[in-house]
Amino acid sequence: MPRSVYLETFGCQMNELDSELVSGQLRALGYAFTPDPHAADVVLYNTCSVREHAEQKVWSRLGELKAAKEQRPGLVVGVLGCMAERDGESLMRRMPVVDVMCGPGELDKLPMLLDNAVRTRAGLLADPDISAPQVSARQAALQGNTSRRSATLAAAQDTLEMLDLSRATFASDADAGTPRKTAYVRITRGCNKFCTYCVVPFTRGAEVHRPPQHIIDECKLLADQGVIEITLLGQTVNHYRFEHGAAVTVGGVVQPQKGRAYQGGHNRDPFAGANVTTFADLLRRIHDEVPAIARLRFVTSYPRDFGDDVLEVIRDHPRICRYLHVPAQSGSNRLLSLMNRGYEVGEYLEFLDRARGYLHQPELGRPLMVSGDFIVGFPTETDADFEASMDLLRRARYKNSFIFKYSPRPGTVAIDKFEDDVPEDVKRSRNNIMLAAQNQISDEIGREQVGREFEVFVEGLSPRARKRRAREAVALTIGGRAQAQGGPGPDESSQDVQLSARTDGDLIVLFDAPPGVTASSLVGRLMRVRISGAGPLWLTGVPVTG
Ligand code: 5AD
Ligand code: SF4
Questions:
Q1: Which residue, of 416, 446, 476, is where some domain finishes?
Q2: 32 and 175, same domain (yes or no)
Q3: Is residue 464 part of a domain?
Q4: Which of 126, 189, 318, 546 has the fewest CB atoms within 10 Å, i.e. the most exposed one?
């Protein structure tokens, strides 16, 4: 019997990618995956530490597992990702239910840790002299702060690079029975920006840039598996820069090195050339060398690092998406400085104007869409500071924004330096005011699209159609009669076949599959739709035929 694993992922796209790679490794070793935590021998949570809210969810999940473990003492519980790295051994002390902890920089060691934990628990439980509650099979792999020490950086990255490279060996979703058309590819790991509120530089370690050839090979491999949309990932993705001469080799793997401080702004990279692959070079190479990729996207960008070279490459390469996610975090220069963001509002706006100058071409069906992040209630934020953020939100005209209430994170600079002095109700009200303003802008941007035609990537059923299918499936299992009596079943003949798709500017478009066409045959394909209606969250459209 294969051991069955339940894996739940919290947080960002980087975590989703880590979970996918971990699943691939475990599947190759004979583990099977189950969507039901109660049926699993191993329960894993891949966690996020960026905001307190995400951690609270994991604490409550772990609390729920206490009873399950009493009933099934052989159950192995693992906490992966940033929360494991940040909380370290104290998490295990507080939550004895946890057997395995594995930081994001150590995930290649997970199979070994799990195997040890499963065997140790089974062995101890078989010992008649030990009672189940005493059984402890703890295993941990954490970087501590070693990833920021240059002497150990190369070694740490060597094993990490192996995790990404493992895709070549195992992690094909096709093996899991679900061929997919869209995939993430990591290009940088870690972060060196040290924004004062942020745990990422501590949990994911120093910034390193993967060798371009590894990235291109991975894109080719995915394209061979049928993937047509790739999203490049990095905490500051547009800071990518690989110096070929400076690479070292450890254990047969070419080591990425830290990027040289990049000047950003209008500047093209002054050292660009044969020995350096810039972000602009990387985009161009993937576009040209992997033509089967119909859509190339990237997140998340750092406002200061967009040279004109990158904007030109996006403009001149039709399969690179016109979508930028560029967090501003605040519209107040005073707060941007306390946050250590390294730019002022004027520079951010200058970048937006420049990006739109290069890339906003609605007349060609290619408007540039930008989304942003804001933190409200950062320590000392006054009404005037908040108004400045509102001003920036209105001037930037984001297609959507992710708005967060500041939460002090242990280990960050801000928690030590600044008192969390904005009351919760003020944070909440600023959050709501900002969301309402953004909704209005999103609505306006949506309405500007009505009548335009777009190529869209069909992602799956719309939320409405998915809910309806789920209801129908329940009705079928309860009654077992719906289909027998000719009622609607969760099959292709069901009337509700509304699909959800995205434009290359990341706008969501819902539309009905054309009559006579099965919805599932369109998923993962590109097609043209004309926009017929708009709201703040999504557009509606009709397929353009012929
Ligand atoms: N509190 C609130 N929001 C935060 N973010 C990062 N750290 C914090 C924090 N301590 C937000 C930022 C970032 C996004 C991923 O999460 O807006 O861009
Ligand atoms: Fe965190 Fe700032 Fe790095 Fe983004 S750029 S991951 S907010 S430290």
A1: 446
A2: no
A3: yes
A4: 546
**DSSP, residue by residue, 300-356:** ---GGG--HHHHHHHHH-TTB-SEEE---B-S-HHHHHHTT-S--HHHHHHHHHHHH
To which residue do tokens 């979970």 refer? 19
CATH of residue 43's domain is 3.40.50.12160
**pLDDT per residue as tens digits for the range 139-169:** 777 776 555 544 445 555 556 677 788 776 6
Residue 333 near residue 293, CB atoms below 8 Å: no
The C-alpha atoms of residue 371 and residue 410 are separated, in whole angstroms, by 28
**Residue 129 alpha carbon to ligand 1 centre in Å:** 49
Q: What is the atom index within ligand 1 of the atom nearest the CA of 374?
A: 17
- Please tell me whether residues 130 and 203 are part of one structural domain: no
Give the type of residue at 28. A
- Per-residue pLDDT of 219-273, as tens digits, reads 999 999 999 999 999 999 999 999 886 644 444 444 444 444 444 455 667 666 7
- Measured by CA distance, the residue closest to atom 13 of ligand 1 is 373
200 CB near ligand 2 (under 6 Å): yes
Please check whether residue 67 lies inside any domain of the structure: yes
* Pair 180, 306 in one domain: yes
In angstroms, how far is CA 419 from the centroid of its own chain?
Answer: 30
Does residue 147 form part of some domain?
A: no
For the chain, how many structural domains are there in total? Answer: 4
Residues 515, 528 within the same domain:
yes
The total of other beta-carbon atoms located within 10 Å of residue 35's CB is: 9
